Amino acid sequence: MPSLRLLSRRIRSVENTAKVTHAMELIAASKMRRAQNSVVAGRAYAEMIQRVMANLEAQPEEEDNPNPLLAHRSVKKIGVLHLTPDRGLCGGLHGNMNRALAKFILSKSPTPVSIVTVGRKGRDFMIRANQEVKAAYTNMTDRPSVDDILPISQTMLNDYTNAEIDEVYMAYPQFVSTVSQVPAIQRLLPVEPADIPVDAKVGYIYERY
Hints:
single chain; alpha/beta; 2 domains; five-stranded mixed sheet
């Protein structure tokens, strides 16, 4: 039978463990709230940018050298930006994302697909599946800056403007709630033109810097 001293030590150990676990729970809840607020705050901006690009694509071309990001061409190769976590402990999130992209790649066969991964889980899965990984970015913070994101977007833009890929998709976990993120695969380029009235097609001149 354990001595009274040993029982007291075990009780203190359990109490200390409970305190540490509670502190970790508070930190995780704070990070989750911050991430949720960021997603909700940025969603309206992302949707508006998509509408602006769709309206621009529906306008008549008046330039001798149109914007290459609005160019449509026959699809010989597809580029995908694949977003997954770096670590586990997130349920089936990374597994669902990888399966969704694998299904997408099969649906596009025999058109080849080039993948840029953000996160180790997606990178490791695509390498094991013998897919073409053009670039891989890992250790992304939960609050990435423009400097963190710029190399990723530049890789995709360069491949598209240089006609190395003819369509660009993004595979990402679409936020529904704190306990539900649904795999989504969305086409980014070429932009799908909006359906607007004829009298709204006024034409624009673009300046690129």
